[in-house]
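Weekly sync notes, structure subgroup
Attendees: PM, AL, DS (notes)

Item 1: joint prediction request from the bench team. They want all three components modeled as one assembly rather than separately. Inputs as received:
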Amino acid sequence: MTHSTEVKRADRKAYKPGRIAIIIGATIIAVVLLAAILAPWIAPHDPYVQSMLARFRPPSAEYWLGTDRFGRDTFSRILYGLRITLWTAAASTALAMVGGTAIGILSGYCGGRVDRWLSAANDLLMSFPQMVAGIIIVALLGPGVTNLIIAIAITAFPAFYRMARSAALALRDRDYIDACRVLGYSDTRIVARHILPETMDDMIIIATLWLATAVRTESSLAFIGLGAPPPAATLGGLVREGFDNLLDYPGLAIWPSLAILVVMIGLNLMGDGLRDANDPRASA
Amino acid sequence: MLGYFAQRALTLIPTLFAVLTLAFVLVRIVPGDPALIILGDQASPEAIARFHQETGLDQPIWRQYLAFLSELAQGDLGVSMISNRPVLTSIMEVLPYTLELSFAGVFVGVALGVPLGVIAARSNGGWTDWAVRIFTLGGLSFPAFVSAVMMLLVFSVWLGWFPVISSGKPITDPAGRLMSLALPAINLGLVMMAYVARVTRGGMMNIMRADYIRTARAKGVPRRRIVWKHALRNVLLAVVTFTGLYFSVLIGNSVLTEIVFNRPGLGKLVIGALERRDYTLLQGLVVAYAILVVLVNALTDLCYGVVDPRVKTS
Amino acid sequence: MTVLRIDKLRTTLRLGGRDCDALREVSFSVAEGETLAIVGESGCGKSMLAMSIMGLLPAVARISEGRVILGSRAIEAEPESRMEKIRGAEIGMIFQEPMTALNPVFTVGSQIAEPLRDHLGLSKSEARKTAIELMERVRIPAAASRFESYPHEFSGGMRQRVVIALAIACRPKLLIADEPTTALDVTVQRQILDLLDTLQEQGEMGMLLITHNLAIVAGHADRVVVMYGGDVVETATVRDLFRAPGHPYARALLASLPRVDRDLSELASIPGRVPPLAMLPDGCRFIDRCPHAMDICNRMPPTVELGEGQGHTVRCWLHVEGGEHAADG
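Output from the run, pasted for the record:
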């Protein structure tokens, strides 16, 4: 190491992107997660029970955030909406991560024709507007949480595929992988024991960042009317219902919007922080 | 330079072809017979057969595919299954609205995001950097429909600065059209701005360490010009690349924006086609989106050629 | 007349919460028309010295003591706005890496014309004319037609000529050449060095030639400053240094040159390398690698004049009368 590299390193260290971001983000997510899990116990009202006597109530001690046009408690519906949003986002990201990583490693490790065709298919998927693809896939598959999860997973697939593929491509030609081959280890074992663990760190960071995107896609689809079918409460669906009464009861749109924002900010803070902590240059 | 574009154009052809095929396949793997959906469960077998014949669904799949391609080559996207209007006419009617919204959104995003990113990079860890960081984090966290609803509420409903519904104003009313474009464009632009600011900041941080920046400083170029001319011209390369990649996100956001502001456009047309199960219209829209994405890629390359002199000569 | 005088310059770096001196008590001067070579291994502080003179130190470094006097004016504490008017106008600089030293998105001509317009206030067309003249002076063939070319259309050697043209554009008093040929092919190296010699003969410009290559020193410099670990360990004319090096490090450097007339028994090469900044010793910084290290070498050695007024100085206890015993007293 020459002195000029020492100086450059010290120069960069002068700016530390906070570990604070991860802590705040993780705290937000933990609270939101807890609220979603405990929803059946902490929700003050049943989110599905309609009450014609309690329509469009303003926030009060009984209805913390007021009621909607069927007299359902907005706060309770937001809590239940969080359940669907978080579950959909987590499941679809996990699905995309498993699928993308598996196929990405296959593509990078095999190389040659397999790699060319898989990459071309992936490019095709990437060239199409994500949101529009999501809309069309959900519409074709039909409504339902499972279909929603599949649709979002498909739109998230390329990010994981690309990362896994390039990691596998880079690792494939390393000496120790060659050594494994000489020792007669099977390809499965090489991938499972040596390539997969090496890609895990990057995968987790991408997954955190994509969780935020999945939340956004889920709530957007629900807003359009392609989310979990009624009477299920979804955050995007709640915003949509509120939007239809925006002039008279703006609160109905504002509260679920804020809930979405809190989740998004928590996830983005965590993803940002993780990326900074893992980036040796720690500048972006 | 011409050779470069010709070469880039050639690589776009297989992509376009593949997406067209995908569009064709997509609307044909729908579960259920479109005839039943459109004519209803009670339709007589004769009516169904007639419908199949009219729409070409009685032909073998490869013949349908060839017909699709040959009609496409003649600029014919078929006729709507519901309204019997030519799909192309429906699309061309609303395309200007989506295009103006997209380009205005990109303009707002770049015009705000680049300076913000530069300022953040210059402050590097100072309070402006943190302010921009938090501000952009907010931008990244707003789904486009949430920001659209909020802006509609604040600026149109409460403050009354903009029309609540920005539906199609004719081009003969430029002031009205601009007013109805403003809020949706700002909505698209603000979300994009957050990304652009981050790309710019990161690029700026790297480029300010480059050797040629040191050369510029050594010849006494004032700091301000080093940042805004010498470094920024190079950062713009990254911004152009990013904008090209971001376009598909932008198109998605424009669908949501069109819904909230009740603007005509491709997005609203997609939703309408899905609600009415108008598969020919849907197929035409997928083709339109594919062509749009390919054209934007070509445009990105063109911009890249303008900003980066290395492209022109090599 | 003296173009540049460095007086007891100390540049301090803040590394991991600690201050360490990247340069200590550095003193020397460059006269009009003179080429002064700064020699040493990488990590000896050569580039830090250049950046201290230019006022282009990184944020973690600062000049904590001493003076940098350009002509008759001290510039070590000038604010950035004043340094911008000095850099490029009164001091020109050439860098090691010509491939990356030019901005890829601007034409070569505009990059040469920029300091002409900034410092000399030339109009656009005047600057263009002068820039083309400069390109001819550094022997870029077909200069007028290459004004609009971009850096990527030039070879490494040609790019270095462009860098030289923009460094000398405003006729600076001082030219700093930081390893100007290290990254170039041997044949191109020669051409660039000859070009620098010619340019200097044409005017009164003083040149600071930073290099690790003693062959270049022998062929192109008038005097030499040998640096080690941020200290000036020896200052001499080229002739004196090659004939009678005083400092053990200078001797070792010379011994590493293959020469027939030199006794190679002493130190064919120097084992070890320059220690990292944070671990530099307080006394003589060569102590760990020096074959003559003594107890007293843990204290900073003084500068000793050798010969009679020849300007040959060495910073080493070996040359202090009774130095071996000074530690006891």
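Discussion: Residues 31 and 263 of chain A are 10 Å apart (CA to CA).
Action: AL to compare against the crosslinking data before next sync.
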